[in-house]
Amino acid sequence: MSGASTAMSPARRLEGAPFASEIRDRVAGEVIAWVKSHGHPPGLTVVVCGRSAPSMVYLERILKACAQVGIESALVDVEGQDPATQEANLTAAIHRLNDDPKVNGIIVQMPLPAGVKLRAVVDTIEPLKDIDGIHPLNAGLLRLGYEGFVPATAHAALEMIHRSGVELAGADAVVIGRSPVVGMPLAFMLTKEDATVTVCHSKTRDLAAKVAQADVVVVAAGVPGLVTGGMLKRGAVVIDVGINVVDGKIVGDVEFAGADQVAAAITPVPGGVGPLTNALLLSHLMRAAQRQDHAKEHFEG
Ligand code: NAP
């Protein structure tokens, strides 16, 4: 383990903003090269069904970040009086975007309206344009350790762990949360990097005992204060993915003040994983655009 803290010294802050800014600069350079060779910018489209969802803030940040680096972005609003019509309109919109050569990446607002089948919508996205890694093909590629698109939040959590300097091979990692967008993809990524991974969830018995063994703890549960300083092994790396609003303030899933005194490195909330997630999505978009070019060359011989 590198970076172990001395007794009661505060943990190193793993801030997302500097890393996100490096990624955006790199993507901006790639966009310039893309425009030179293609005559138009790469494109990302966000599909939404119901603008009132809390995820609109997150999606609007993505659109703003696209504008900063020169990626053409658009928002497609899908309507419908009932779930069946919404689902049909969503899948029709996604098919159109799949067929549009100027759209290189597609993001669909989650959660979907009640009654719309997740599988029906997700399966429609062209896997080469699935920049947030939600299509079953990309999830399967990750499971098998092959190259595909991974969910940006899980990717951001992994990048933060890399930034902490911890040696992952042989490390004990605990991932709290098993969702398809954070916990499970991250567990597969950490396994691929030779960590020994324990995935915890709401039915896990004695979470504290699992966390106490861990060199790396990733919390993605959506439960404020779930992990406290007293649960952690001294010198652990703590990645807090949670975003919760408590008394009008955004907080994570880790009780920061206590964890800060025990961990070697910790991500703040806000300001840790979130900004990095947004920047990594832009880099996924560029990779999608480049891979679509290669696929086209291959197809056209
Ligand atoms: P999710 O789909 O609701 O999954 C939450 C997971 O946490 C589930 O697996 C659940 O277990 C587990 N869990 C809930 N309570 C628990 C408890 N008391 N002890 C142990 N495990 C528990 O959420 P998600 O989409 O993965 O998101 C997780 C958190 O990350 C949320 O706060 C979300 O807002 C945040 N988030 C942040 C970003 C970012 O960019 N920073 C992006 C996406 C999400 P079961 O499977 O047993 O129900």
Index terms:
301 residues; 3-stranded parallel sheet; 11 strands; alpha/beta; 6-stranded parallel sheet; binds NADP nicotinamide-adenine-dinucleotide phosphate; disordered N terminus
Description:
With about 300 residues, the chain is an alpha/beta fold. The chain is built from ten helices and eleven strands. The strands form three sheets. It has a six-stranded parallel β-sheet with strand order 1-11-8-7-5-6. A hairpin with a 2-residue loop joins strand 9 (about 245) and strand 10 (about 250). Helix 6 crosses helix 7 (about 185-190) and helix 6 (about 150-165) packs across helix 10. The longest helix is centred in the C-terminal third of the chain and has 27 residues, at about 275-300. It is globular. The structure holds NADP nicotinamide-adenine-dinucleotide phosphate (NAP).
